[in-house]
């Protein structure tokens, strides 16, 4: 039930951004993808995999738009990092050591760190209604650089 609540919260966030989420059969090695303002998830995924894939694909949508010239490896690194941050904050499956972005220096892949912080903070804010606010508010506040990417969000 809790996982479905998180999925619903992110799908509501998508709707506010003008993004359509749908599920359809995809190749066995593809669990999700973005196409324009669509997030496509493979049908039949577990709730946890749906949530994490939605987070991953939303990272691509928010941080890696068509105007961005970002290397695919960097884009995947960023999407997987945001996925890991969100999973850690929500207490989902063991994904190894949780990432603490307060210890990452901005001179290390500065643009990438900024995008990761912004997307993670944005998605954690979208999930605030799905979890007791204190844990997520604290995390979202320190991850979102002031003024970062405000033009990418819709009210």
Quick structural gist:
This protein is mainly α.
Task: Please estimate the helix content.
Answer: 40-55%
What class, by secondary structure content? Answer: mainly alpha
Shape: globular
Series of H and E elements? HEEEHHHH
Lay out the secondary structure.
Elements: H1 2-16, E1 20-24, E2 32-35, E3 38-42, H2 47-63, H3 72-90, H4 110-126, H5 133-143
Parallel strand pairs: 1-3
Antiparallel strand pairs: 2-3
Helix pairs in contact: 1-2, 2-3, 2-4, 3-4, 4-5
Structural account:
A hairpin with a 2-residue loop joins strand 2 and strand 3 (38-42). Helix 1 (2-16) packs parallel to helix 2, helix 2 (47-63) packs across helix 3 and helix 2 packs across helix 4 (110-126). The protein has one domain. It is mainly alpha-helical. 51% of the residues lie in helices and 9% in strands. It contains 5 helices and 3 strands, in the order αβββαααα. The two termini are 27 Å apart. Residues 104-108 have low confidence and may be disordered. It has a 3-stranded mixed sheet with strand order 1-3-2, with helices on one face. The protein is globular, with a radius of gyration of 15 Å.
């Amino acid at each position: 039930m809790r996982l479905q609540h998180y999925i619903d919260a992110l799908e509501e966030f998508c709707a506010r951004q003008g993004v359509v989420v749908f599920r359809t059969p995809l190749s066995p090695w593809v669990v999700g993808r973005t196409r324009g303002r669509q997030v496509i998830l493979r049908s039949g995924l577990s709730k946890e995999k749906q949530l994490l894939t939605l987070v991953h694909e939303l990272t691509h949508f928010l941080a890696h738009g068509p105007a961005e010239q970002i290397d695919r490896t960097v884009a995947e690194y960023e999407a997987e990092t945001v996925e890991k941050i969100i999973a850690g904050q929500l207490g989902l499956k063991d994904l190894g050591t949780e990432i603490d972005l307060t210890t990452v220096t901005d001179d290390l892949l500065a643009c990438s760190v900024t995008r990761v912080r912004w997307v993670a903070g944005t998605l954690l804010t979208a999930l605030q209604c799905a979890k007791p606010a204190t844990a997520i508010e604290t995390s979202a506040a320190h991850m979102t650089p002031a003024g970062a990417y405000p033009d990418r969000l819709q009210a």
